[in-house]
Design brief:
The chain has 411 residues and is α/β, with parallel strands linked by helices. The protein has 17 helices and 12 strands. Helix 2 packs across helix 4, helix 3 packs across helix 4 and helix 8 runs antiparallel to helix 12.
């Protein structure tokens, strides 16, 4: 094999002619290259063949993957072309992305490593600036998004928010339940952010959405009703049961405070230790917790009624759709007349969300997949020790969880 072809294979170059290999002044390897004749004089943005404008700024270097412990650079002329659509731009080269000083192989490896370890570790391993890693992630993510239509064919989606920084800083994320992929994310947690998603989805594709899982937030429900009126909103079961558990704990605290006011310290101590006995599912109670629950049943009627209300609401998600509707109506009637203020208030909330709750039971849809992805985004944030901007976190999350991550070079 000729030495020139060996260098091309070693560097993973395609549609490229290797002209010479020299050693630089600091011991780095400089590989002189030029595009193959089919790749010459193309727009750097759209890759359309265009007329040459001028020679640009002369020769330019691109950082390639290290050869062992030695820096390696590709060097080539960088003429400019005149594109009818994008104007005068630097001509495209087959070994690098537009407006980048790194080769494709180098950037692909940076993206793969960034999805598996911190940016600081990537910067130290590959000997680049920390900010360069962020720019590479943004560039590769943007190119991949243009090639893959993540919003095509969406029928069942989940919408939720995830905190990414102190000070009530949130991302709104959208997940495809069928593929399990993250399909959209943006900074913010309000009606305007959700409307931006539906605007990007488009009117035609909005009509194809059949089911949407979310919590009870009005900033999600409002835009959904405006842009996708045909879609069923499925209220996440976890948030429904969480409201019942919070109401139960409010009743327990009120009974505890009343016992303290009356000087009944023994009852107050028992109620303080009964927190997990009324929280946990009956099948998961220890013997001691079961005994404490039996004591509550004998000694405190309101708290035990609140416990039964919570448990009956849980049974809603273990029945069929027809039985669930009857059970929910019965639960609402009981909660309205139970004379427990926390559950009377909860009954009003459940009544307003009745259709969404029954839709979740009928379709068996929850936000569990979205919450799992939220945990992965929090892991990315902890692994990176935080991000200066939401855009950097979104780019890394899209690369890792939207199927945009490029493979390792040569794999």
């Amino acid at each position: 094999m000729r030495g020139i072809r060996l260098w091309a294979r070693l560097l993973g170059l395609q549609h490229t002619v290797v002209q010479d290999v020299t050693e630089g002044s600091e011991g780095e390897l400089i590989v002189s290259v030029r595009p193959g004749w089919r790749q010459r004089d193309r727009c750097g943005v759209c890759r359309r063949r265009c007329g040459r404008y001028d020679r640009g700024e002369g020769a330019r270097r691109w950082r390639a993957l290290d050869l062992g412990s030695t820096f390696c650079f590709l060097e080539a002329d960088a003429p400019r072309v005149s594109c009818p659509k994008h104007g005068v731009v630097v001509a495209a080269v087959p070994w690098a992305r537009h407006d980048s000083r790194f080769t494709r192989s180098f950037e692909d490896q940076v993206c793969w490593l960034s999805c598996n370890c911190s940016k600081s570790a990537v910067a130290q391993l590959l000997r680049v600036a920390w900010r360069s890693v962020g720019s590479i992630l943004d560039r590769v993510c943007e190119e991949s998004r243009r090639k893959i239509d993540l919003l095509g064919g969406l029928k069942r989606i989940g919408i939720d928010e995830v905190s990414h920084r102190k000070g009530q800083r949130y991302l709104t994320v959208v997940v495809d339940h069928d593929s399990g992929r993250l399909v959209w994310a943006a900074d913010g947690r309000d009606r305007k952010t959700v409307l931006a998603f539906f605007d990007q989805l488009g009117q035609k594709r909005c009509k194809q959405v059949e089911l949407v899982s979310s919590d009870m937030a009005s900033w999600i429900a409002g835009p959904l009703a405006d842009r996708c009126p045909q879609a069923e909103r499925c209220v996440d079961p976890f948030h429904v049961i969480q409201l019942a558990t919070d109401a139960l704990d409010e009743v327990r605290r009120e009974v505890w405070r009343e016992a303290r006011r009356q000087g009944n310290l023994t009852l107050a101590k028992d109620l303080q230790g009964a927190r997990f006995a009324v929280w946990k599912n009956p099948q998961n109670l220890t013997d001691r917790q079961a005994a404490k629950l039996a004591t509550i049943q004998k000694m405190n009627g309101p708290l035990y009624r609140a416990y039964l209300l919570k448990e009956q609401l849980r049974q809603l998600y273990k029945t069929s759709a027809q039985e669930a509707e009857k059970l929910l109506d019965g639960w609402l009637a009981w909660a309205r007349r139970c004379r427990i203020p926390a559950f009377v208030k909860l009954a009003k909330t459940i009544t307003a969300q009745r259709d969404g709750i029954l839709a979740a039971v009928k379709n068996g849809l929850s936000n569990a997949r979205v919450e799992q992805l939220n945990s992965q985004i929090r892991l990315i944030t902890r692994q990176a020790f935080g991000f200066h901007s939401a855009e950097a976190l979104i780019a890394l999350a899209m690369l890792k969880h939207a199927g945009l991550r490029p493979p390792l070079p040569g794999r």
